[in-house]
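Margin note from the TA: students keep mixing up input and output lines. Inputs are the sequences; the output is the structure of the whole complex. Example:
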Amino acid sequence: MTPSSINWFKFAAPARFYPLAGRLWPWFAAIGTLLGLVGLWISFFVAPTDFQQGEGYRIIFIHVPASWMSMFIYCVMAFYALLGVTFNTRLAGMMSSALAPTGALFAFLSLWTGALWGKPMWGTWWVWDARLTSELILFFLYVGYIALTAAIDDPRRADKAGFIVSLVGVVNVPVIYFSVKWWNTLHQGASVSLTKAPSMATTMLLGMLIMALAFWAYTIAMALYRVRAIILERERNATWVAELPEMKS
Amino acid sequence: MNWGSTSDFLAMGGYGLYVWGSFGVTAAALLVEVILVRQRLRNTRRALRREISANRNSQD
Amino acid sequence: MNAFGSVLRRDLLLATRRKSEVLTALFFFMIVVSLFPLGIGPESAILRRIAPGVLWVAALLAAMLSLNRLFAGDYQDGTLEQLALSPTPLALLVGGKILAHWLTSGLPLVVLAPVLGLQFDLPAEALGVMMLSLLLGTPLLSLIGAIGAALTLGVRGGGVLLSLLVLPLYIPTLIFGAGAVEAYTAGLGAGANLSLLGALLALAVFFAPWAATAALRIALE
């Protein structure tokens, strides 16, 4: 069960990565918490009341960063899929499946906060807008990935199937976005345009940026934290696992 | 400072339900994820520890 | 190219031996389409408005029904392993199987669609556009679906999983396909929608058999 000796990536071996992830994740968690607090402070105390939307607009300080993260995480998963396909490292599959639940969560949060923003602003919980619809489809893509990898018992096969799903998905995301936008213009009378957002003030942009960085650090921390559990589950028979200090008791 | 009082802060200019519904659910969801992963890691470790000590005992 | 033809012929022959499976998907398509007027009401103005969408959604669902057995039979009896070992590139053979799947499940829908469109009071020219959009779009359903079918091969709960994986990827096809008819009825012309469908089809012809082959190799390991 020892990993092959030819390893270009020094830490790509699960035995090396497990302790590394254990050392790194608290740092990212701390950065995430700190940035999150700064972001909350900006979004509630620094950013002034919007003259058009009142206090309700403060939702975008998490809505927009959550949407960004949900798309970004899908791209990172596809990047790991590419690594996994070309270099056949086991860690790529583990990282990919460690990221998926967090990505799905952010997609869900983007939809949830979008609905809560839409209700007071446009009077409906849901608008068939191109961006919201694409986000919903992205959420479905995450669910498909998670369901498929969970249904395959052999972890190596699950990883490889997941690679294909995320690569096919990432190729399709722009096509889906374009088609939904196209569909949206065809049915313009039926929906409300979201593009009439007020011109973004610098403080607003700063707040969203800091929140996005907080989510980013949180995602890294969660992925590293979760990948530790995945590594242990898969390497349960490896000798290095038995020699871990936390296994001796 | 935007808020005169705590109740002002909670009311969010009439949008309290929506704003706190968004921020609250986001915070809760992230917290739940952390708890679930911590449980997963803990359960895996416990099961592995049992397995490893069982193997040691059988070898002795 | 010879091997491509023989795989195609073999799959078509198998389909003629198992007529009931092909017919079931067809009747499913008809029943689903006929349910909508019963659920919505018989006003022809509304029916004419929803017809393209209903026909297209029913076509997606009917495609899901037949995708399961695209590779399943060959996987179980070991034919797939033989195909993988043959000197011809597997992607080409997979392409033959996909073409056979389209001929037995997609093409009948294209032929059937105008009859069902009449139920919805679609004018004759709109029926023509509908057929054209289905003719361009149903091969896409077979091509994209083949990737999903290969991925879920031998996986427990494969059927439901397949729809979960594939239906989101069908959305552009649905939008451009149904949009072609709607744009035509609105007087905008169906050209843009149809050319986009054609572009997607050209891309899928190149990439989908290749991705499906990669997925099959994983299942065969």
